Amino acid sequence: MAASEFDIIRRWFTPAGPGRDDVITGVGDDAALLAVPPGYELAVCMDTLVAGVHFPNNTVPGAIGHKALAVNLSDLAAMGAEPAWVTLSLTRPDTDPDWLEQFSRGFFELADHYHVQLVGGDITRGPLSVTAQAHGFVPTGKALRRHGARPGDLVCVTGTLGDAGLALQLGLSGDAPLRRQLDYPAPRIEAGIALRNHASAVIDISDGLLADLGHLLEADGLGASIQVDDLPRSADFRAALETSGQGGDALACDLPLGAGDDYELCFCIADPHWPVMEAALASIPCAVTRIGVIMEEPGIRCYREDGRPYTPTITGYRHFTGAD
Ligand code: ADP
Ligand code: MG
After folding, report:
1. Which of 36, 162, 268, 280 is most enclosed, with most CB atoms within 10 A?
2. Is 232 in the pocket of ligand 1 (CB under 6 A)?
3. Which of 247, 229, 70, 40 is nearest to 136 (CA)?
């Protein structure tokens, strides 16, 4: 007989172990009861992953579990928040135990890594879709925001750009290193916390650098110049592009600029603060690269290393076009 929703919650979505001290009541009552520590503000975000839209239909269940949480932790990272709690709404066409086992394992591996407790959720029948809502703490007044950049600030990014976009472009599956970047994005929690006292503005890159940097710039009516040849690309990205025989230079520029799903942080910092911030970021598990400068004039202008302007062909993922 198929498992009931209560069996599913008990077996796959009730966290093991003692749990966090700030969870008064977690999974099992009509609502969770949670205590925000004094001196902190609560950062709350929610993201939905729809099969075939936010992940390819051939994505393994463990990756869907990981990604459902990771995309939310990425939003908390962009606020400089330390993650604490998560709720999870799962819509599935069936109660396949193998799927649920792998999904919950992927979800809890990441949750446990960041000491995030699942405190509630919902389960419904329908086409596969996963929504998670994450909650994190940030010291009062210290949250990182999209606004606050100033002309002359350096524009920087964590990690590398374009890996997930190239995995999609090449239709890579399974254990290809670039496909792992698409399936198992690493939320930049440590970087977000380290940036708290240094960055003037921060956003996470989910829809592509140009699109998300564009949101950051709109917040202050500013612009930016970006050095395309300085965009950080991974060794796997370069190798896969070379062996694919596809597009070469155009893709090497356009994917890091325009493709989504990287979940890196893009942040701004006043030039004189750079050395102090570099020291603050020395202990975090990813590289940080300067890619451009904030300008007074609105809009993003891209340049090659010889100074020529560069016009990208893709500018970022949009869920709805103007015609919708
Ligand atoms: P109700 O019918 O009152 O909405 P549910 O039967 O949906 O309650 O849920 C019972 C308990 O299980 C609640 O505490 C709810 O938060 C939790 N829960 C339901 N689905 C999930 C899930 N996918 N992950 C974690 N907790 C869940
Ligand atoms: Mg109830």
Report:
1. 162
2. no
3. 40
Which ligand has its closest atom nearest to the C-alpha of 87? 1
By CB atoms closer than 10 A (0-12, 13-18, 19+), residue 56 is middle
User: Mean pLDDT, consecutive 10-residue segments, the chain of 324 residues?
Assistant: 83 90 96 98 98 94 98 98 98 96 98 97 96 98 97 98 95 89 96 95 97 97 98 96 84 94 97 88 90 98 96 71 44
Write out the residues surrounding ion ligand 2, Cβ under 5 A.
30
Please report the atom of ligand 1 found closest to the CA of residue 27: 14
Q: How far apart are CA 223 and CA 214, in angstroms?
A: 8
C-beta 123 within 6 A of ligand 1: yes
In eight-state DSSP terms, residue 272 is G
pTM of the complete model: 0.94
Q: Closest Cα to residue 82, out of 185, 184, 187, 156?
A: 187
Query: Ligand 1 atom 17: the closest Cα is on which residue?
Result: 120
Contact yes or no for 82/136 (Cβ under 8 A): yes
What is the model's pLDDT at position 323? 40
Q: What ligand is nearest to the CA atom of residue 14? A: 1
Contact (Cβ atoms closer than 8 angstroms) between residue 223 and residue 217: yes
Distance CA 74, CA 45 (A): 10
CA of 30 to the centre of ligand 2 (A): 4
Half-sphere exposure (Cβ direction) of 129: Cα atoms closer than 13 Å: 10
Q: DSSP label at 246?
A: S
Ligand 1 in reach of 120 Cβ (< 6 A):
yes
Count the Cβ atoms, other than its own, within 10 Å of residue 184.
15
Predicted pLDDT of residue 319 = 59
Residue 263, both tokens = 């979940």
121 lines ligand 1 (CB under 6 A): yes
CA geometry: angle 315, 316, 318, nearest 5 deg: 125
User: Is the CB–ligand 1 distance for residue 119 below 6 Å?
Assistant: no
